[in-house]
Amino acid sequence: MQDFGAAFGQAFALIAGFDPALMEIIGLSMRVTFTAVVIACIIGLPLGAVLAVGKFPGRATLVVLISALMGLPPVVVGLAVYMMLSAAGPLGVLQLLYTPTAMIIAQSILVTPIIAALTRQVIEDMHSEYDELLRSMGSRRLSTVATLLWDARYSLLTAALAGLGRALAEVGAVMIVGGNINHVTRVMTTAIALETSKGALALALGLGIILVGLSILVNAGLMGLRKSAERLAYA
């Protein structure tokens, strides 16, 4: 117990002292995660809206597929991206394996179905409510999609934050495609796994405390956005 107590004390000291190694890992984690979530939003928001509003052959199959991909195993995504980016893969010439870019690609693939599926549900519910009004105004399909995306922006921020929470906790895929290389691809989750296996609990605990704090902030943001959306709806 004394060792654990000392480790916690050292962990808080690392955080309070803005330890360079700790800050470097946190900085890379934030860069990779936020970039992946932005890419996932750029793809997932319009994709989900089109699935909600559009009527085309294969739509039902795509809806089922997107929903199923929400539970896509991270290690499978990591393996697929590894095969694409490896020297023998179709994108091996780009030499992206074991780089932050490879980690961003893997996280984007994991997060996009989550954002797309949540967006589809939100936009579908809103479309059923405003469909007749939009038709009476002569709104075309693309205009309808854009209008609904804008009107649902607060609810869609919730979808983005859900994707952010998923990306923050990811370890399997980024470990495979990033390699957990010090000063290059070591992020919070992979560093926690490595430092724990080495018995270096202080750094692992410091990163764990930061990661839990970020998760709490994400969930607090979700609750705040829901309350704001409810107040605006009843205003």
TrEMBL record:
The chain crosses the membrane at residues 33-53, 60-85, 97-118, 156-181, 201-222. This is ABC transporter permease subunit. GO terms for biological process: transmembrane transport. PANTHER family: PERMEASE COMPONENT OF TUNGSTATE ABC TRANSPORTER. Belongs to the binding-protein-dependent transport system permease family. GO terms for cellular component: plasma membrane. InterPro entries: ABC_perm_TupB-like, MetI-like, MetI-like_sf. It comes from Denitrobaculum tricleocarpae. It comes from the Bacteria.
